[in-house]
Automatic annotation (TrEMBL):
The gene is trpS. This is Tryptophan--tRNA ligase. The lineage of its organism: Bacteria, Bacillati, Bacillota, Bacilli, Lactobacillales. A motif ('HIGH' region) lies at residues 10-18. Pfam families: tRNA-synt_1b. It catalyses: tRNA(Trp) + L-tryptophan + ATP = L-tryptophyl-tRNA(Trp) + AMP + diphosphate + H(+). ATP binds at K9, P10, S11, G17, N18, G144, D145, D146, V183, K192, M193, S194, K195, S196. A motif ('KMSKS' region) lies at residues 192-196. One of its GO terms (biological process) is tryptophanyl-tRNA aminoacylation. One of its GO terms (molecular function) is ATP binding. L-tryptophan binds at D132. Homodimer.
Length: 328
């Protein structure tokens, strides 16, 4: 069986990008040995308000379930409830070099947005993420395209560890979706849709049908009024086409053909809005039921226990290999 690990930060309200890039893939791995983590310790690499963080963590766990993850089949847990993550993270940080961390695109972007002081955790987030993945000896990590660089670093750190201390960690690969691997903001199609940088171009998983429709109607396009994919000259339309393709299962070419005779982007946007609303409606209904029910805590407690069994075993192996354990 393949081992799968992935996580999402409770750093904001989940977006359509998180769903199409990551969560929609999660549900395809339910027959594997899969771990899906709510990475709350990554969320605090930028300042978070305590009450909000707690609520978002719960909400994200409920969305994992609402998107179709079955806790009988996969392990769903909160990162801070399995201390081995932070323990292996320290080891991975010690193996990392400042230069390679400073070169990470996401670090540069996020640090650039913080005009005053930059939390050291922001720089250390990629080795922490490496620890999350390596703790489970994951084979594949379903993530959006923006995480490719961090996955590369994870492999580098695993290799470095294995080379210095003996074969210990498996080298994981990134598993990205076919379409919509990087959903862009509907207002600024050159900017990734992000839950921590939410604007009117961000579609949230919990947006009402009216809000979704309005955001899509107002999506930035171009004045050519011809529907075809061209990432360089038509980034707005290309983004909408990718979203349409990901949800409908049609290829971009099939969609272009479908609207060949249609004037303007109006009908295309109406249809896309209906697709997104149709995708979100059942998830939202399921989410409401979970939030109103009392199962969530038990699921998360059981998940943390199950995850810890595997994580502690692999942490100990790493500690033994590098001389941190008293005995071998
Ligand atoms: P933040 O702004 O706090 O970094 P985020 O929206 O980027 O939030 P993450 O928690 O960093 O979300 O990432 C969770 C998963 O969602 C990752 O697998 C990431 O690659 C994926 N993801 C995030 N944004 C997008 C996007 N716009 N398109 C496709 N996948 C995405
Ligand atoms: Mg992110």
């Amino acid at each position: 069986m393949t081992v799968i690990f992935s996580g999402i930060k409770p750093s904001g309200e989940l977006t359509l990008g998180n769903y199409l890039g990551a969560m929609a893939q999660f549900i395809t791995y339910q027959e594997e040995e899969a771990y899906f983590c709510i990475v709350n310790q990554h969320a605090i690499t930028v300042p978070q308000e305590a009450v909000e963080l707690r609520l978002r963590t719960r909400s994200l766990a409920a969305l994992y379930l609402a998107s179709g993850l079955d806790p009988q089949k996969v392990t769903i847990f909160i990162q801070s409830e399995v201390p081995a993550h932070a323990q292996l993270a320290w080891i991975m940080m010690s193996l990392s070099q400042m230069g390679e961390l400073e070169r990470m695109t996401q670090y540069k972007e996020k640090a650039g947005n913080l005009h005053e002081s930059i939390p050291a955790g922001l720089l250390m987030y990629p080795p922490f993420m490496a620890a999350d993945i390596l703790l489970y000896q994951a084979d594949a990590v379903p993530v959006g395209d923006d995480q490719q660089q961090h996955l590369e670093l994870t492999r580098t750190l695993a290799q470095r560890f294995n080379y210095r201390f003996g074969e210990t960690f498996k080298l994981p690969v990134a598993a990205t979706a076919k379409e919509a691997t990087r959903v862009m903001s509907l207002q600024d199609p050159l900017k990734k849709m992000s839950k921590s940088a939410e604007d009117s171009g961000t579609i949230l998983l919990l947006d009402s049908p009216a809000v979704v429709t309005k955001k899509i109607k107002r999506a930035v396009t171009d004045s050519e009024n011809k529907l075809y994919y061209d990432l360089v000259n038509k980034p707005g339309i290309s983004n909408l086409l990718s979203i349409y393709a990901a949800i409908s299962g049609l290829s971009v070419m099939e969609i272009e053909l479908k609207y060949q005779e249609v004037q303007g982007y109006g009908q295309f946007k109406v249809d896309l809005a209906a697709l997104v609303v149709g995708l979100l409606a059942p998830i939202q209904a399921h989410y409401e039921r979970i939030m109103a029910g009392s199962e969530l805590d038990d699921i998360l407690s059981a998940g943390a226990q199950r995850a810890a069994l595997v994580a502690n075993k692999n942490l100990l192996r790493a500690e033994e290999a590098m001389g941190l354990a008293r005995h071998k």
